[in-house]
Amino acid sequence: MAKKEYYEDVRKQNLEPLWTIPDWFLSAEPLKTYGPYQWKWQDVYPRLLGAGEHMVPGLAGSRRVLVYAHPELRQSLGTTHTLNVAMQMILPGEKAPAHRHTPLAIRFIISGSGASTTVNGERMAMESGDFLVTPRWAWHDHRHDGDGPMIWMDGLDIPITRFLNGVFVESYREAMQAVTVADNESRKLFGIAGIYPKQIDSLTPANESLMAYPWANTLEALRNARETVTDPFEGAIVEYRNPRTGGSVLPTLGATMQSLLPDEETQSHRHTSSAAYYVYRGQGRTFIDGTAYDWNEGDVLIVPPWSWHAHRNLSNQHEAFLFAITDEPMLRAMGLYREERGPQK
């Protein structure tokens, strides 16, 4: 059989000779399938407020959310190839009905006061800088009894859950859950690392670990990190962790908060995990594969996998704080996390 006829015959059977497959199938290192991207808060914020005129939670869908949809990942509505990051808002008097889903979620509270979220019957206050967790298949709803818009950042592992055909969603039998345990029960049980009630293994709390991490605790941890283990590639950085296991706060999603002092500049590194940065405070510049991205409070910046990056605080007076959502726990669990540190910017 002639060579051309052989390949035609093989492919008619939906077979493919491995030796003809290009480098993207097995490459020497990760290939760049999408680039960095930045959303400016000045563009997002008015459109988020505008959504209040066109959508009511529970009537036209369950949540008022704007997804950060990377233009190179529009088909999946992904912010990165594994993460969905979004901004959510509820207004005074509103309730976002209870539901649950297999994609897990983390929330970073941006602004507002007087709102709460209830997870598996445990109600938790939401204040600026707080970090909250919603495990897989956990009932959750939100309500706002305060004044002014309540805004927070959501991070979910929807793209990878969809890829694995594992997405399930279910609405609660009523609009809102009943609060069945003391408010902030998980914080009372697990909020002091390493010191828990002796009877903890015999208790049946609504949630099996810490669900809410207050900003005051995060700030104290950052101050302690600054005095002990600053990283030349990250500045002072802390990771939100599950206090019972010591591992990542959720199986597939990780979250960090880092601090950059006035004029501080980190060294460059890259890793196989992707990251979505939210600028909680300050102004600065991030270099990604040689391109500079200037950021201000409220901006969101995507660093794709295996991309050289470094940060710089452009203020000579004020500290900058960067919150990040990453898929590092997933990569580590699969034995695929790798990091390279170097001088490149």
Description:
The chain has 345 residues and is α+β, with helices and mostly antiparallel strands. It has a single domain (34-342), classed as Jelly Rolls, CATH 2.60.120. The chain has six helices and 20 strands. The strands form four sheets. Strands 2, 3, 4, 5, 6, 7, 8, 9 and 10 form a nine-stranded antiparallel beta sheet that branches. A six-stranded antiparallel beta sheet has the order 1-17-14-19-12-11. Strands 16-15-18 form a three-stranded antiparallel beta sheet, with no helix packed on it. The longest helix is centred in the middle third of the chain and has 14 residues, at 215-228. It is globular, with a radius of gyration of 22 Å. The termini are far apart.
